[in-house]
Design goal:
Distance between the termini of chain A: 39 Å
Largest interface: A-B, 51 and 51 residues
Strand order of the largest sheet of chain A: 1-3-2
Largest sheet of chain A: 3 strands, antiparallel
Strand content of chain A: 5-15%
Order of helices and strands of chain A: HEHHEEHHHH
Oligomer: homodimer
Number of helices of chain A: 7
DNA sequence: TCCACCATGTAACTGGTTACATGATTAC
DNA sequence: GTAATCATGTAACCAGTTACATGGTGGA
């Protein structure tokens, strides 16, 4: 538990390593090949970030020396790293993040279930919805007040932002519903619920 | 025309100064009070950014010494600054920006009309739509392929991203329509079109 | 032989964050 | 006199970008 903060990239790495012990190369591949493309896959970002995390004691590495292939340094979470990761996940959704940190917010949510379970995900969604419900009317009011004196493209840009937040509101409802469904299934069948693909995701 | 690149914040400043010559304090206020809240309003970001822009010759300052109030340094665009600004605006919409630079993209659009006119805005929207139309199916395919093996929250996070891009597609249509309307009005009435507020923005 | 892929690093640079410093004016 | 607002700066720190370096393995 060092004093310096962990960056968004750092948490993304913690989350992926939490899923499965990985090497720097694995992580880079994840960033290039999966939908996490918003993160940089450059070695100059990832390897130093891993070093920092190791230095602060959140992860620890082990060199895997396999015949043939080049040795790879595989990282796994330490107990304190897992604690930090969960603490990050459990952070309440703030207004500030809703305004300018949506990416990190969604990252948190993506990792949430695996580390905090459905309960954590639901709590997150509820708080998120509250913040969205407070923010959207403000944006609309702003558009109404100043829209007329803006050039059309400025007005439309603002409108685009509002639409995005409204879409998030709808998404919150949808996601909460999905969790309710999953909970109901669990209750009746006593079996780990399989994803219900009816109704079409997206 | 220095060699170093201008950051997103730099372009945001150029755009605002292009609208109206401003002091650092004015610009900070804009970031705190308007919908441009995603930019930092900290003096440690803005004043150095203004200095850099001035050093490279994109803006130039003049100290306004008004009786009573503290002197303020007011910046305005130079000819070369305006050229750089317009060049940035005219940049084609790339896949990369669609994936991880949406913020800058919308910033560009917001400033577009005022500097490049409706023609520029329309060209932007068309290219944007093409990139979105190419990207959205890829995301959906990815969700279909890997969604089942992801935890529900991961799947939902991805779904949220897809919804956002779909909303942008719809927004593109809407925006293009608005520009067509504006063009039609201009043609028939030969008057600078007033914003049509019917149909409800957002 | 040379390319593609596996795999890890380093070094220079730079822009943004946080926090502190300063000082004038207006209103209470 | 003191708080709020106007107004501009500086300094330490740090993370990420770009680009380069290195080297092993397998296949064409």
């Amino acid at each position: 538990m060092n004093s310096v903060n962990i960056s968004t990239l750092g948490y993304a790495l913690l989350g992926l390593i939490h899923q499965k012990p990985s090497s720097g190369y694995d992580l880079r591949k994840t960033f290039t090949e999966t939908a996490m493309g918003s993160f940089s896959n450059s070695p100059g970002a990832i390897y130093p970030a891993l070093e920092r995390l190791e230095k602060r004691g959140s992860i620890q590495s082990e060199v895997e020396d396999r015949a043939g292939l080049r040795r790879r340094r595989v990282y796994r979470l330490t107990a304190s790293g897992e604690k930090e990761f969960k603490h990050w996940l459990a952070q309440p959704v703030t207004r500030k993040e809703v305004v300018s940190g949506l990416g990190e917010l969604m990252l948190r949510f993506a990792f949430m279930e695996q580390a905090l379970g459905a309960t954590g995900a639901i709590a997150f969604l509820r708080k998120f919805r509250i913040e969205l419900d407070a923010y959207v009317p403000e944006l609309k009011k702003y558009l109404e007040e100043y829209g007329a004196q803006m050039p059309l493209s400025g007005m439309l840009a603002l409108d685009s932002g509002i639409r995005n937040y409204e879409t998030l509101q709808q998404w919150c409802e949808y996601a909460l519903q999905k969790y309710e469904e999953a909970a109901a299934k669990k209750k009746t069948s006593r079996v780990r619920p399989v994803l219900n693909r009816t109704g079409g995701m997206s």
